[in-house]
Amino acid sequence: MKNSIPWTQIVTAVVAIYAAIVSTITLITNRREKIRRLKIIASNGVIGNSIIGASELMLLITVSNPGHKNVVINAPYLRLPNKNKLIFPNPGTDVRYPHKLEESSACTLWSDMEQLKDVLRSQGLDGIIKLRAEVTDGSQRIYRAKKTFKLNLSIR
Predict the structure, then answer these.
(1) Which residues of 114-128 are buried (b: 16+ CB within 10 A; e: fewer)?
(2) Residue 131 in 3-state DSSP?
(3) pLDDT digits (tens, 9 = 90+) for 62-88
(4) What is the dihedral of CA 67, 61, 121, 131, to 10 degrees?
(5) Ramachandran sector of residue 53 (left: φ over 0; alpha: ψ -120 to 50; beta: rest)
(6) How many CB atoms neighbour CB 77 within 10 A?
């Protein structure tokens, strides 16, 4: 007497496993498309054009929307090491806030690095500090940059 499984049951089991895998992948993909996602990067750089030339060194905060849903965002800000929020007093920007960030688009806010350092020093910060760029959407959900931006306040 043989204890073997009929081939029809093996085929049925393989098809069921395949269907479960495809269903799970579809579910994950559909959920990702419905979620609002933002990518935030803080960096340094210069702003310039052919008329005025290059600017002084600036802190640049770029917010991009890699998701498939439009997101209304408020102006980006910095989270300080003491957990306080630093909202830029006179930032340069390429949009007006609140701003509707379409899918696959980005916007940038910039601030003069020396003015920023002066503001941070006036708040009692010194040495090398880590700043994290953040932004809120229309429902006040907070999106944070994955990496911190290191700034040396000792260097003028």
Answers:
(1) eebbeebeeeebeee
(2) strand
(3) 999 998 889 999 999 999 999 999 998
(4) 40
(5) left
(6) 19
